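wait is this the right file?? whatever heres the structure
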């Protein structure tokens, strides 16, 4: 699939991997991004004037409805949806006083929002030739990292959901793709990027190459190794991930 002359929505597109995606795709496509921070959206727009931006918090159903309405009314030619937005909270589950509210918000942004947007925007995608839903997941869907108990669960859920859609068979003009990323050096880590992280450019380069080559489960960087190890020895995969 060639991503050219298309209208593309990237959730969480104002920083990190989402912004890198926008930078690489905006030259030959109409790119729409959404994010929680108006300041970050404005900065992205200043650097990439061709961008179309929409402020919303994907954890809130009404904000998602507002985004969907904006797309339906202003950009009905949408042909590619990148479900990229995600958050993560670390810590010991039993020691987090606000564990349930944190878990709910992560679930809403990382899992419920991709489902909601995919379902609501699918009729528009179906009207376009060579359309796609691309779910950005994580290698932690294969083997969890102890400190990210909510994040692991949301990405495992998104991974399973995407596989389920793919197993359902043909989706008309719309291809369903999953991208499983390793650790990526982005502001998401708040200056504490783990060792071995790849750049956002490397992540997006590999992602777009996989899409162009027709892959439906794109394992980027070390997720290829993690996938194989997790299939052979889950305990070893967990040991690698958790040091």
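ok assuming it is, sequence goes like this
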């Amino acid at each position: 699939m060639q991503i050219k002359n298309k209208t593309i929505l990237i959730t969480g597109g104002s920083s990190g991997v989402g912004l890198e995606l926008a930078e690489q795709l905006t030259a030959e496509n109409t790119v729409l991004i959404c994010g929680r921070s108006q300041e970050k959206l404005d900065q992205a727009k200043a650097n990439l004037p061709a961008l179309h931006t929409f402020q919303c918090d994907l954890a809130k159903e009404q904000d998602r409805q507002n985004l969907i309405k904006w797309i339906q009314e202003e950009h009905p030619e949408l042909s590619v949806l990148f479900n990229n937005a995600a958050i993560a909270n670390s810590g010991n589950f039993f020691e987090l006083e606000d564990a349930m509210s944190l878990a709910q918000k992560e679930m809403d942004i990382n899992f419920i929002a991709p489902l909601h947007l995919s379902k609501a925007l699918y009729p528009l995608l179906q009207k376009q030739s060579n359309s796609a839903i691309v779910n950005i997941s994580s290698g932690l869907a294969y083997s969890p990292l102890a400190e990210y108990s909510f994040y692991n669960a949301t990405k495992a859920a998104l991974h399973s959901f995407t596989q389920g859609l793919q197993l359902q068979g043909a989706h008309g003009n719309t291809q369903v793709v999953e991208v499983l990323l390793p650790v990526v050096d982005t502001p998401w880590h708040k200056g504490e990027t783990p060792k071995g992280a790849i750049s956002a450019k490397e992540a997006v380069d590999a992602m777009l190459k996989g899409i162009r080559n027709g892959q439906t489960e794109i394992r980027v960087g070390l997720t290829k190794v993690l996938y194989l190890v997790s299939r052979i020895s889950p305990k070893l995969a967990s040991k690698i991930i958790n040091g």
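The chain has one domain: 7-242. so i think its the right one actually
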